[in-house]
Amino acid sequence: MSWEQNVRRVVPYVAGEQPNKPGMIKLNTNECPYPPAPGVERLLKRMDYGALRLYPDPDTGVLVDALAEYYHVSPGQVFVGVGSDDVISMAFMTFFNGRRPILFPDVTYSFYDVWAKLHGIPYRTCPLDEDWHICPEDYRQPNGGIIFPNPNAPTGLFESLETVERIVRANRDVVVMVDEAYVDFGGRSALPLVEKYDNLLVVQTFSKSRSMAGLRIGFCIGSEKLIGYLNDVKFSFNSYTMNLPSQLLGAEAVQMGTRFIVARESVVHENYKKKVIGARDIDSEVTGMSHGHPVRQLRNKMTREYVKLEKEGAPFEELEQLTLGALRKAVVEGDVVNGTLMAGQCAGLVQKEQTCEEMIREIMEQAEKLLSPRS
Ligand SMILES: Cc1ncc(COP(=O)(O)O)c(C=O)c1O
Question: N or C: which end of the chain has fewer CB within 10 A?
Fold first, then answer.
């Protein structure tokens, strides 16, 4: 008998590396290259540090109110958390307590299966179609809840609002979560559907288009009933989740209304485009790469290979050994924002500072080498 028998054992999610080397072009965690809204800087400079001796507002009122006003909903329809990771994890705990498996796409944000395992939630993954889109028919089977990102990550492809609504409409007896971490870069938000469907939860983050990943702010909007249940769980877990600076600076950013709507409208800053990927390659939606682009094709090949091996039941160690672990990390952490997907994915393979062309060439060579023994 050992105390270890009583330990909850989990295989943790591996968070993106945060190297801090001068001059490094960092792409692996999809942060925005621009600073946050100017008001955020101003407020940060005149913040009252004496206020830090107090606990923050447990209801995060200032931020909830700002979000409610901005999105034209009632404060009772807004829940905020420490990044959307916190919001989604809390929502898994709150809403996915049935016996039936929850559903999510097989190629998607790789935290979902980690949370499902952590919270003991059965789950089933639904394959994407040949063009890497979600198949709405797959979400008509009996289930205990649904989550999918829109746009999906790492594919960068978004589904139409009609497709999202079809999924929500067909699943009125469970909670459907749409993870809109990247919606400001492509696709349409499902927020207008919240008034119509009391089982829909729309999750967003300040980490991407608002350039505030360092403050860890996420939120969701849904019916007052859903948000009430979420708050019950949150207050049974940790009342003071969000610190004071995040609440104040988050509210300021919302009031300024500043978000960086980049990829779809192709308003990625010209210099940034040239520096990172080569402007001529940024031509399609969201991922910013054309389907025929060799880098994008290789990424797809890698994803298929990885998914195939995983389905065959290859242990993770083996995948790791084959260095497909690195490729998986690469695939999963891909940058859907501005077409730097492949380069960002392979940040683990290529660490030194290079021009974009050099970086892509090296990635291609290394990736081909890694895949060739198996093909
Ligand atoms: C699809 C998706 N959802 C959620 C998150 C979590 O973002 P955060 O916790 O920073 O809000 C990420 C982060 O990269 C993501 O890619």
Answer: N
Which of the listed residues 87, 179, 220 should we mutate to test ligand 1's pocket, taking the one with most ligand atoms within 8 A of CB? 179
CA atoms in the 13 A half-sphere facing the CB of 40: 22
Map out the domains of the chain with their CATH numbers. Answer: 38-255 (3.40.640.10), 261-371 (no CATH)
Residue 373 alpha carbon to ligand 1 centre in Å: 34
The answer to whether residues 136 and 148 touch, using CB atoms and an 8 Å cutoff, is no
Handedness of CA 223, 226, 232, 238 (dihedral sign): negative
Residue nearest to atom 3 of ligand 1 (CA): 181
Residue 373 burial (CB < 10 Å; 0-12/13-18/19+)?
exposed
- pLDDT by residue for the chain (375 residues), tens digit each? 899 999 999 999 888 888 777 766 677 788 877 778 778 888 999 999 999 999 999 999 999 999 999 899 999 999 999 999 999 999 999 999 999 999 999 999 999 999 999 999 999 999 999 888 999 999 999 999 999 999 898 888 889 999 999 999 999 999 999 999 988 777 789 999 999 999 999 999 999 888 899 999 999 999 999 999 999 999 999 999 999 999 999 999 888 765 543 322 223 333 333 333 332 222 232 244 455 555 555 555 555 665 566 567 665 555 444 433 444 344 334 333 333 333 333 333 333 334 444 545 555 565 555 545 444
Closest CA to 144 of 82, 201, 102, 176: 102
What pTM, to 2 d.p., does this model score? 0.73
Q: Which atom of ligand 1 is nearest to the CA of 205?
A: 11
**Which atom from ligand 1 is nearest to the alpha carbon of 218?**
11
Ligand 1 residue neighbourhood (C-beta within 6 Å)? 30, 83-85, 109, 149, 153, 179, 181, 205, 207, 213, 218
Q: What is the distance of C-alpha 346 from the center of its chain?
A: 18
